[in-house]
Amino acid sequence: MLVWFLPLFLFFLMIGLPVFFGLLAAPGIVLWLNGQERDLALLYRNVYNGMDSFPLMAIPFFMLAGELMNRGGITMRLVEFSQSMMGHLRGGLAHVNILSSMLFAGLSGSAVADTSALGSMLVPAMEKNGYSRRFAAAITAASSVIGPIIPPSGIMIIYAYVMGESVAALFLAGIVPGVLVGLGLMAMTVVMANRYNFPVASERANWPARGKSFLRAFFPLMTPVIILGGILGGVFTPTEASAVAAAYALFVSLFILRSMTLRDLPAAFTRAAITSSVVLLLVGAAMAFKTVVSLSHTPEMLAEMILGLSQNPLMLLFLINILLFIVGMFLDAGPAIIILGPILAPIFTDIGVHPVHFAIIMSVNLTVGLATPPMGLVLFVASSVSGERVETISKAILPFLAVEVLVIFLITYVPSISLAVPRFFGFIQ
Question: Residue 416 and residue 167: Cα distance in Å, rounded?
Fold first, then answer.
């Protein structure tokens, strides 16, 4: 009877119950009906235990760093630098949007922060430049999924916490896939720009102008260098790196760029605290949910079912990508990783898939789900920023989703894309 918590959980999602409550209510009801009061107490106690973790402290610090940089006007400097490099191309502002997302990814690691920060700035600018509002919203949403792929990445911190992997290895493994997603979106933009005669944003900037815009963006661009350099050099742990990133963002905004004042800090801290609390509550609920998953022996049953479909690793990887893509349409990446990671990862490591490789397959796939209809979170954020309906953005985003799915399969079947960088730095064999 215990396995009925999964259909009940899906039912709660379909009727619109928030994920946090669904993760606790579904197994709680089944355990109560099953007379397992001791396990019911364990379920709700594990909500706190799931959040009580030193590695997870990295999430609120990275959220705070992104919020400080956004409120400090640093996003504008990244956009100006991107425009000086790519604004002269046909469809220049679309390229600027994508490149800005790639640069912003190194600051916050959040798709939602990317969509709200860049969307509020670039969607009106693109509309004024001659783009349709729905296209501007769609390219903003599509490019924002790069945020959790290029380090630092909140979902990779969660995956490493749940599966006992190295955060540094996952960060390094996400660099090339994240860049590939960005280049793929740019290639699609080139095709669409030539077909639909997109406007040119600005004249080609000369190198002195580019150098000037680079200097204005220099200190923000140093953030990922400090984070990765400190981790790789053994100076600090990923959690300590997140605190350093937040302190660096505060110092740069207040004293170097002077784009913030002390009066701006309460709002930034409050916003970061609210965002972090949502993520950590979901992590705690998902870890409690994971307890019931193990009690019900669902992983073993699912493993038997998956291996019964095929013994061919290539076919199994294809099927699991389809499964993850569907899951990503309805469930946020963090809870999906905590629920499915312990179930799926052992199956694929047993058939020879490297643990870090599978982590990237899962993380990228579920991240793309953030921009996938009908429940993709960044679609709703892009809708609120642009004023366009989710349905119209969903139609406009389809060509870019096709590119991202192609990149997912490329990552899946070419392991060196994910493993080359962490292997070069000696984090994996």
Answer: 18
